[in-house]
User: What shape does this take?
Amino acid sequence: METRVAATSTPAELALAVDRAVELLRAGEVVALPTETVYGLAADATRPEAVVKIFEAKERPLFDPLIVHLPDQSWLGRIARHDDVMVLVEELTAAFWPGPLTLVLPRWSLVPDIVTSGLETVAVRMSAHPVFREVCRAFGKPLAAPSANRFGRISPTCAADVVKELGGRIPLVVDGGPTEHGVESTIVRVEPLLLTILRAGPVTREDLETFALSVSDSSSPLSSPQAPGQLKSHYAPRTPLILATPRTAAALALAAGKTLAPSTGVLAFRAAPKDASPFAAIEILSPTGDLREAAATLFAKLRRLDEAGLDLIIAEPVPETGLGVAIMDRLRKAAARE
Ligand code: TXA
Ligand code: MG
Assistant: This one.
């Protein structure tokens, strides 16, 4: 299958891209679309025979449920039940929608089993990306959309990276430029008085704490998975990756009587290692130490190191506050091998 990339830089291009995307979605096809977090691979969430194509293109196991993206807020009550958490949901959606917050709520039967992997809950969000919103609104129905990468791999943050992941497998990528946040949405299970963070993301724990009596965190890969998709290994480059400062990694290698792998790359937070000579490639996430910038460029830089033919990537830890929690979650999962 030929994968076409549709530009959206001019109003005419945007109109054409939206038309083409909607036409394909109506025909039960999949389309890659930009969101404010990462690129998604979208299909009509109400049609199992369309949704199954997402799983095929991504080689994603059927036990991993998808997020349903709503055209507008009026759809929420048709997809999810929130009678016992009405006020909390209203406050959260008023504060964060459209935007990078996904809510897990009990579902209605309009959502097919293939979307929720048979769970009694459904994950819902409303994307803030103008191109995604335009397509979803013109289509007029909710879109199921996981990140547009092959299963377990790095999420794409630009159209070219979608083509690298899924080229030849999907008919269309709508190019909306690089994504704003660079890491996937925060996923939160909503229960009366209690929010549980299932995946750390751009909306931070601190952001959520003003809304619920209690915010608990089960997004750590060390805790037992609450969602089938909370696998320990995810966002994985092909190159082995360890999480350590370059100095620690070198010291550990020395103590074990080995040198570092001959071709080692570094994913640094603010600055290159003092002695850069042992390293074949160095990427810096944010010279000013800005966690937002670091998150926005994380996957693209990780992908660049992965494509550099290295034997090892050393990723330097970032401060684990605010967005740093989401960055460290992705790095730990990139480092996990099972
Ligand atoms: O930012 C995002 O959320 C992107 C963009 C495209 O919207 N989407 C995304 O989807 O990251 P995906 O499929 O790559 O990750 C969705 C995660 C999976 O780990 C899945 O297990 C979890 O959401 N999930 C989906 N439905 C769930 C449910 N009912 N309960 C718990 N977790 C759920
Ligand atoms: Mg994903």
